[in-house]
């Protein structure tokens, strides 16, 4: 019997609601398969910040480091500035544990309505490989001056080593898929960092002769993603460009509420962290409207990462089954189900596996 230790951080807003779904599904997995999860639930959130003055305790990263994987809902809530909540929790986790890959799969699922015409979106299945450790998300910068003379500056950092490792990850990913990488750039003479990005991605591509790599300006790529999403196999992008492209891709596939992500630490020290792409969604929080699929698909990525292939595959097919019918889809996908009803449906399918096996 495998015993796996999980750190659960529900966070804020719908993060808490989709974490409830995840817990229900993890319980169904351990009731059905040969695995036990020990779950440490951590109340690290904006609410904790109001209470204690910190998003997480001083030894928070040590606590996480003792687990096999981290599952996170969403962080951020009105009343706490985003730079406080994000630099106080999310970003330190990604950086301390070496989670330099942010992997974000996208698919158009059977039966799911998309804003793009079905003949264009059918068969869409790609992954965004987002650089997760540096780039435009740097700590260097700030605001200087006052009033009409105020200026804000942000220093991007693109190191050869970080671009090389993310490009390598993208090429290797393409080798196990359909063999095409599109590199998002903006190197047309304006952004200096992007010429380094291009040069390094080109060098890495040479080492992968079976992969075709095309370099595309991100503005044109965004348009292509809407017009021809099924052309994409693997997208490699910097931290900010990957962030924007992944919300766009999720919307093209029907809703930001279905997109999952894995913050992977391929070279350690780990652990890796899994979380939906979406945020805390203050506009729908507390109403049972949140789509839990982005979180549940993130659980699939986590189970795969933990080499629990059988429950991962069963959960993925239960997700696909729920997405086929509007009665088991949430409102963002034109459905009528609540967060809890989608979760119940998926959990029941998993528990049925136990009866049939
Ligand atoms: P958001 O993703 O929370 O919401 C954007 C829109 O998408 C909203 O209209 C929301 O209702 C909708 N939406 C999001 N998830 C959904 C779901 N599961 N089901 C149905 N609809 C869903 O983005 P935002 O409004 O820009 O950010 C809100 C807060 O979340 C901010 O504080 C932001 O910093 C934070 N945030 C955190 C993370 C994270 O923890 N990784 C990610 C993104 C945003
Ligand atoms: C995401 C989020 C975060 C990011 C924010 C909240 C810092 O948008 O996980 O996609 O940009 O990485
Ligand atoms: Mn984002």
Describe this protein's structure.
InterPro entries: ICDH/IPMDH, IsoPropMal-DH-like_dom, TTC_DH. With 357 residues, this protein is α/β, with parallel strands linked by helices. The chain has two domains: 1-100 and 261-357, Isopropylmalate Dehydrogenase (3-Layer(aba) Sandwich), CATH 3.40.718.10; 114-139 and 152-253, Isopropylmalate Dehydrogenase. The chain has helices at 14-32, 46-52, 60-65, 82-96, 118-121, 160-175, 192-206, 218-227, 239-252, 293-305, 309-323, 339-356; strands spanning 2-11, 35-41, 69-74, 101-107, 125-131, 141-144, 151-154, 180-185, 212-217, 234-237, 260-264, 272-276. Strands 2-1-3-12-11-4-5-10-8-9 form a ten-stranded mixed sheet, with helices on both faces. The protein has a two-stranded antiparallel ribbon with strand order 6-7. Helix 6 crosses helix 7, helix 8 runs parallel beside helix 9 (239-252) and helix 10 packs antiparallel against helix 11. The chain binds nicotinamide-adenine-dinucleotide, 3-isopropylmalic acid (IPM) and manganese (II) ion (MN). The site of 3-isopropylmalic acid has 5 residues, from helix 4.
Specify the number of helices. 12
Q: Which structural class do the helices and strands define?
A: alpha/beta
Q: Write down the CATH topology of the largest domain.
A: Isopropylmalate Dehydrogenase
Strand content is: 15-25%
Bound molecules: nicotinamide-adenine-dinucleotide, 3-isopropylmalic acid, manganese (II) ion
- Uncertain ranges: none
